[in-house]
From TrEMBL:
It holds the Pfam family YjbQ. Belongs to the UPF0047 family. InterPro entries: UPF0047_YjbQ-like, YjbQ-like_sf. This is Secondary thiamine-phosphate synthase enzyme.
């Protein structure tokens, strides 16, 4: 197994960061296998979705609708409403596994690999890529 950790700067507000290019560089020339993308954070996730056409913003809006940043949360450290950030990975998991054929991730035409970070308290995130040869 081959592994690498990258740092993604998400800034001080909720963000969806496209990490497809970094993942593609990681698997280039690796042959067939599986790519696992893992975010070792309690308040971030990995999603496969279309970007650039508004779906990334729609995801953040849907998370806000589903998990409002208000005072209902028992988990209370950090910014107001931060407890919802700790619930979000149950809806957007902190991992994704994708097939790789001939050193290329087999994503659909409009699919991208995205880091989903609703937590503005942490401006940088780590993402671990692991390649398991087939």
């Amino acid at each position: 197994m081959r592994t690498e950790v990258i740092t993604v700067r998400t800034g001080g507000r909720p963000a969806v960061a496209d990490i497809t290019d970094q993942a593609a560089r990681f698997v280039a020339g690796q042959g067939d296998g599986l790519l696992n993308v893992f975010v070792p954070h309690a308040t971030a996730g990995v999603a496969i979705l279309e970007t650039g056409a508004g779906s990334d913003d729609d995801l953040l809006t849907a998370l806000d609708d589903l998990l409002p940043t208000d005072d209902r949360w028992r988990h209370r450290h950090g910014s107001p409403g931060h407890g919802r950030d700790h619930v979000m990975p149950a809806f957007v998991p902190p991992h994704a596994t994708l097939p790789v054929l001939n050193g290329r991730i087999t994503l659909g035409t409009w699919q991208s690999i995205c880091l989903v970070d609703p937590n503005g308290d942490n401006p940088e995130r780590q993402v671990r890529f692991s390649f398991l040869p087939g």
